[in-house]
């Protein structure tokens, strides 16, 4: 396997410190983290915990924006402050304690109230890769979202409120090449072999009398041959019904001459690869059919490559994406295995070359430098062509003013989802309450909690009506609990919510793995948390 | 400086809202008030097992959730590769005992908390040590360690005559596990929820693996096995019937179950890839600490009882309510057998064959660590043979009641199975105990 030409080098001590995470996102991912600058709004425990995880992971730089001073109450929920810091700037204190966790990170702070900053200096945010906005109310969320979309800065919201909370990514578009799914079928093309593979398979005799040779024929060969035999008798169709699949499996089994033929056992286990549909998945089809695949001079590298992919599939790909090229381990003679490997590698390389030419051609067509997308990038794209992902997020404003009613009703109908919807609505309702009454419901002891609960309920009901789901009966218990929470920021909830936020940030910055869609609503009562895509 | 005009703030400003205020979706014994908060602070003791990725987070989380009396046990020393997530450690701490540094750092930061570190193996502690804690929070990375603590905690459990667990002997545990972007958090209340061992007996002893679970509608780990057993078995093995005694069969079932479990990103199953990041540890520990607070205080309903988490492909959390195995060898009461003090070991073994719930033939008998009788191999059979004519009461040290394990061939649904069963033996006629209805003594 050739080394990535552009792999950055790391000093030895750094490499071992990050060892356990390099195994996940590699040096390329690590480099992306180290080149990123993060802005945190509000450094209560939610923000501090989110940032802690990123600092430990080696994020490039952090800038904390918070205008408050450390209070005694903060000593009970924030690990990044201590008794000596009471009365000091919270941003300064948290910054110093976070810096201790990793001296490779550049840590700064700005003593200012984030809500004010959003109003008075929107251009402040343009300098960052990503903003983590914690504990913002609706109004500020909408404003900040506009600013960040305009400046093309990624945005992640996180909120802790009693035993509930939320995390929401807001980015116009996030494209992923290296999505690293947990489980993905290998690309053996047993259901659609190409000429070179067919020729190789034909050269091997399954009926060989030599028992050693018989049990060292790799299952790829066995299945391609048997699939070919089958299609010849079945008007060129592969097994599709349950009976046919069973019949095919039995057919494969019947070729075994002795009990210890692992290659045949593997072939039986792998028959499902023959039944898999040919061509590309619905998801990839949607991507190549996307509007953005019609590229222009401003298109991103991703979409230029998608345009090339579309051409490839329609022409030399013959309905298939570029071959991924790797082969899993299997029982085989060394000679057969190496020969097979070569065949797969050769086709993958040829497909990739084809793609390169198409990419160059498209770049020229849209008036761009044909070498502006590297060979390395195209190679990675080809390897991951079946696993591409595109994530898009509505603006906060759109979601708030026009939530998907169908989605809401679907969630409300499900027992699992309904409490999440309840909390989502209540989180918005408490912000409206605060805008009217200048405090959160139940925020202060000595007030009338019952009255607050009643006022909160009224606010929530009008919101529900606005959202178009009048039929929803907001459970009274949930509403009362929300008042009981009184906008408390509990450390454990902050750590959970902040943890989720930090993980999403990592995925967004490394451009690996798949970020969450929608709004994650945390339910700390029974842990029946859910993501709502409204 | 603090504003002199405003009333002195409480350090527990946020926690107070949960502990001092009445709530709606709360535990059955929730008595909100300052007393509850103060009692937790002053009297509740929590043990954190492990001071690594999860342990560091747990200590911080618990210290900031109103707990003041913590202990932490870990036998390891700090290594450089820990530093990307075990945030209580610095480069200059490499080589020092994790438990000691972790305790020191949290105490420095959170004033008032007392953390006693134990730089030792969990097996080296007396059982009484573990009994001193209200809750045991596990931040472990091995199955063996989890099994050990589970065995200890469930060992404290006692049952009433009507098979209900005695409340004061229940020692709850919260257990977390992580790997890469995946993790789990579970609540174990011995005698109430499934314990760690509850379904491990299904698997042959030579295959070392964790409790295999499903994050779908099947509610029992046994269903995972059943799935592989009933549905896919026949697809692959045709007419051959499943034999749980056949190690190859069981291994196949295990492998299938693993594959299915991996589909749901359930950690703890399958190989360890040794990947670890701060965020997953933070998430799982937070869930565990939250449950600890809820169990102790009753301030909200608790997790019932297994949370799985996968953050690699989108974000997925799922709660599954698993059911206990009533016959669990570790947390179950064991089948009640009442005997006369005169009954010999041989007579006892004969009785097991007739016992309607057991129908166990060719039984070997074990009392704690002592084998009282072994059917095989011949050398050991001969060695233990003299015990057969002695009274079981004497062989068991003349205690009025105790647990024994019996192993033999059981008849279930007209099929023979190897079977290991836990029995609760109670002797009548010892210390003037009166007869009970279910006696089967001669």
* SSE pattern of chain B, N- to C-terminal: HHEHEHEHEHEEHHHEEEHEEHHEE
Q: Radius of gyration of chain B over alpha carbons?
A: 25 Å
What's the assembly state of these chains? heterodimer
Uncertain regions of chain B: pLDDT < 50 for 5+ in a row? 201-224, 263-271, 432-442
Query: Structural class of the secondary structure composition of chain A?
Result: alpha/beta
Q: How many runs of DSSP E, i.e. beta strands of chain A?
A: 10
**What coarse outline of chain A follows from CA principal-axis ratios?**
elongated
* Number of distinct helices of chain A: 22
Helix content of chain B: 25-40%
Strand content of chain A: 5-15%
User: Helix- and strand-based class of chain B?
Assistant: alpha/beta
| Biggest sheet details of chain A | 8 strands, mixed
- State which percent range the strand residues of chain B make up: 15-25%
GO molecular function (chain B): ATP binding; NEDD8 activating enzyme activity
Pathway (chain B): Protein modification; protein neddylation
Function (chain B): Catalytic subunit of the dimeric E1 enzyme, which activates NEDD8.
Family (chain B): Belongs to the ubiquitin-activating E1 family. UBA3 subfamily.
Explained architecture:
The complex is a heterodimer of chains A (534) and B (442). Chain A is α/β, with parallel strands linked by helices and 534 residues long. Chain A has helices at 12-17, 19-34, 45-56, 90-101, 114-120, 138-151, 195-202, 211-214, 219-233, 242-254, 262-269, 271-275, 282-288, 301-314, 334-365, 375-383, 396-401, 405-413, 415-437, 449-467, 476-485, 491-510; strands spanning 37-41, 61-65, 106-110, 130-134, 154-161, 164-170, 173-176, 389-392, 519-523, 530-532. In chain A, the strands form two sheets. In chain A, strands 3-2-1-4-5-6-9-10 form an eight-stranded mixed beta sheet, with helices on both faces. Chain A has a two-stranded antiparallel ribbon with strand order 7-8. The longest helix of chain A has 32 residues, at 334-365. Mean pLDDT of chain A is 94; it is low at 1-7. Chain B has 442 residues and is of the alpha/beta class. Helix content of chain B is 30%, strand content 20%. Chain B contains twelve helices and 13 strands. Chain B has helices spanning 15-19, 34-43, 53-63, 98-109, 127-131, 143-155, 221-237, 247-263, 278-297, 345-354, 378-384, 392-395, and strands at residues 45-49, 69-73, 114-118, 135-139, 173-179, 182-188, 306-310, 316-320, 335-340, 360-367, 370-373, 401-412, 415-428. In chain B, α7 (221-237) packs across α8 (247-263). The model of chain B is unreliable at 201-224, 263-271 and 432-442 (pLDDT under 50). The chains are: A alpha/beta (534), B alpha/beta (442). At the A-B interface, α1, α2, α3, α21 and α22 of A face α1, α3 and α9 of B. Chain A: Belongs to the ubiquitin-activating E1 family. ULA1 subfamily. Chain A: Pfam families: ThiF (PF00899).
